[in-house]
Specification:
Blueprint: E1 2-7, E2 12-17, E3 19-23, E4 26-29, H1 30-49, H2 57-81, H3 96-99, H4 109-127, H5 131-156, E5 163-164, E6 171-172, H6 173-181, H7 188-196, E7 200-201, H8 204-225, H9 232-249, H10 265-287, H11 297-306
Antiparallel strand pairs: 1-2, 1-6, 3-4, 5-7
Helix pairs in contact: 1-2, 1-5, 2-4, 4-5, 5-8, 5-9, 6-7, 8-9, 9-10
């Protein structure tokens, strides 16, 4: 499907085709290509960063073989659980076929992060590794993957916000049609205003991408300034992303809701996780346990013999 997306206030217009290429009769979508690129870049950076945070890069790669597929399952499960109405058959029964059709779209970042954190915790317990050190490394990868992955939403013309006249407003016929179908446009005049570019929507995919880029830069600086305790970088990520996601989620028109409460699920999770991360940081800071030193070649050899 081809969409034209414009940013009239910035004088920009893009023609977007969701399909990147056709391989052996199978469409390969830009969304998947962008996600894969973000994942590879995240893995590359994390393996380079691992030793400085006391983590063996080879063990980190081993962990990813478990964490990645389980994170995808978690991201899909989260989406399905909080969007059950989309997966009901005509008779009201649950449609398992549609639920597992991940190729049709429908992943929730928070579901993936939660599943990944649980997987890392179990892996570290079994392999006698430090969960906090692995989490400190992994959060860099999460920020890289999320910052890049959001551009897949741009290609799909999704994950946008409510109406605005700001200079960076985003306009598209598909957006106008979707908002009209959802009953989010008050009049035909508002619909026409999107088509002629005088009215648009918040590009919330861009907001979150930029928020993650800024978070990545701040955490790199934090590591250079010196961590005070293991887990400080990860907990800072949880707090940073939670606050940003809660704010940005409030702008979106496609939020998942916490069952029938009317509360946006990711907004709720973002606020709770941010508060929890800040509380844990204060506790860890007061304990003053210090940090694990960088893993040197000699330290790695000693660790291997110890295991």
């Amino acid at each position: 499907m081809v969409n034209t997306v414009s940013f009239p206030g910035l004088g920009l217009e893009f023609t977007l085709n969701r399909v990147a290429l056709n391989l052996f009769g199978k469409d390969i979508y830009w969304y998947g290509v962008i996600i894969a690129f973000g994942f590879l870049l995240a893995v590359f950076y994390c393996t380079k960063k691992a030793a400085s945070l006391g983590v063996d890069s080879e063990k980190l790669i081993d962990m990813l073989f478990f964490a990645v597929p389980l994170a995808i399952i978690g991201a899909r499960a989260y989406y399905v659980i909080f969007y059950l109405s989309q997966f009901r058959a005509a008779d009201g029964s649950f449609d398992w076929g549609r639920a597992i059709a991940i190729w049709d779209g429908g992943l929730a970042i928070y579901g993936g992060v939660i599943a990944a954190v649980i997987t890392v915790a179990v892996y570290c317990k079994v392999r006698h590794q430090s969960f906090w050190n692995y989490a400190d490394v992994g959060c860099y990868g999460l920020l890289i993957g999320q910052a890049i992955g959001r551009w897949g939403n741009f290609v799909n013309v999704e994950a946008y916000g409510g109406l605005t006249t700001l200079p960076w407003r985003m306009c598209s016929t598909s957006i106008a049609n979707e908002l009209m179908d959802k009953g989010l446009l008050e009049s035909q005049e508002a619909y026409q205003s999107i088509l002629d570019g005088t009215l648009g929507v918040h590009p919330t995919f861009l907001y979150e991408s930029l928020w993650n880029v800024l978070g990545f830069v701040l955490l790199v600086l934090l590591a250079r300034k010196g961590r005070k305790f293991d887990g400080q970088i990860f907990l800072s990520y949880v707090a940073w992303y939670g606050v940003g996601r809660a704010i940005i989620e409030g702008m979106r028109t496609d939020s998942l809701y916490f069952f029938s409460t009317g509360l946006r699920t990711s907004q709720l999770v973002g606020i709770i996780s941010a508060v929890a991360a800040i509380v844990i940081m204060v506790i860890q800071w007061k304990r003053g346990k210090g940090v694990t030193p960088p893993l040197t070649a000699a330290g790695k050899e000693q660790e291997e013999h110890g295991n």
